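So, is this right?
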Amino acid sequence: MATTKNPKNSRKVPHQLAKNIEESIMDYLNENNEISNKVGIGNSFCEWVLYNVFELREDEVLDATEISGKFDNGIDAVFEYNGDICVLQSKYESSHNIDSMIRFIADCQRVATELPISDRNIVLEMCKKIRQAHQNKETINCYYITNNYISDWEDAQKKSALKHVDEEFKNLKYHFYDFDKIHEEIEIKQGMLPKEFRNKSIKLPIQENFENFGTIVTMVKIKHFADFVIEGGNTLFHSNIRNHLKGTKINQGIKKTLKEELNNFWYYNNGVTIVCDEYNFMGGLVNITAPQIVNGCQTAKTLADHFKNMTISEVNSLTQDGYLLVKIIKTKRSADENSKKELRDKITRYTNSQNAVKGLDFYALDSFQRDLKILFNQYGYYYEIQRGSFITESPSNQKSYKGNEKYNYLIASGKNSKKFVLPAKEVIQSFTAGIKQMPNVAYGRANELTPLGAQWEKIINEETKKLPLEHFLFPYLVLKYAKDELKYKAGPNDFRKNAAFLFVSTYYLFLLTLYNRIKDKNFETPVEINSAFYKSLFNNKELNIELLKTNHKILRSFFRDTIIVDEVGDNLRGFVQNKVHKPRNWKILELKIDQIIEDIEDEDVYTDITELIENN
């Protein structure tokens, strides 16, 4: 690969992690059978970036990359990340060059202001979103990413081109990632702060204070704290996984207090918590090394925005001094990066409660998710709470994950150890679809399946936590089999491209119906069935595969039903997201299951499943 030789002699990346990243990219390309296809290679590299750098879910990746292809106007992906619209162009190895970088700058400006040249509806729709964001002066993040290296000369040429960008495009923020930058993004998953911030110190003027337990609790003038945040910039919030949620009621309240009751800010606000590597007193100043705001992100950013928009004379003319409570905690000098990250994460988890959360967010901080990680490890699987973290594991650790020989037939098509990596978000989606029978939420509202999301307490609660691990493992393995063996993924030009989670739901509904009929029960949910039945079934490779294939026939019949055909129309995605769970449609699905069961009653598969159910 191009990353074996770095033309930037001043930058050396640690060999092992760099090698892990190279192997991860190559494994992904091999997994998708794209090595001999130049276009396919580029597409697969783009997907790898979206998974491992931006940590998107699989459905988000599919949506983001739908624009790529004929007449895509130089764009490989469009997606939302931390509340901003993002435009991505990826270049694998030798496809990267200075002309591509300069052309990307121009392409982003063009699609932000002009109608795209394309006859594809998805391109027209995506580019319309970009134009609307530009017209509303919203931030548009433009990412050019290559696994090659951007040379010093290329970097200089790129900077020169950006200097000549018109003021009209100041809301387009350009980011150029080469292998070094990809490496740094993956390295951060190990607990490291961004390179430019690891040894950075910022001074903060403080008022009355006391110190104990390696912590300073102090009163700080609001305008001084705003200067501190402005100087530190976004890197101050790297460890705070919540987004800066613009326009929330909390932020509006902060703004109102700043304008109308500055002297009462001290009483109305809970303050800010900072974790750092070190701090030192210097008269009325405290010098803080590698500070991270882990609580009070909304307060800090709102204060900075407020004072940033004021002139010097306006600041000087203030007749009141508002104050803010600030707590500064330093880590142990002997602590390694993982220990520092753990401390930052715990403080974030225990002190953040306000405002809605979006995206991955608190997955990494949720105690139940960490418990699942331990349990999956005992089964031989790596539970990837933070996407891309498997890459940071040592080669020996990566190879130690071998799954469970009883169930690995469901992921047999995987070509490397990555098949034993279970992404947390997909596991929770599969559980929601199968055990909770909510395919519409799993597929269409997955952002609500986060530890502070709207659906979280319905999906993960005290009762859920008592369930056996198999209720989380088996639905995911069914999902993988459906995608890998039955092609329930992008590609097929039929219902399968949007029905993977519906496949999981239908399979568990199919099993529930069989169990009730054979046992003469009236169970309403899959979780009511003894887990021993599921273990016995999934231990039986031949029977389980036969039932999985039968489940595919059920869905094929369902999507051929004339009522469902009319309901789907030309919007399959919308049907699965919003209509499949409507009573009439779900009743048709149940009818198709009953019909299939009647069709197989004289077959060996029915005899085998009957025997298995009666013994459980």
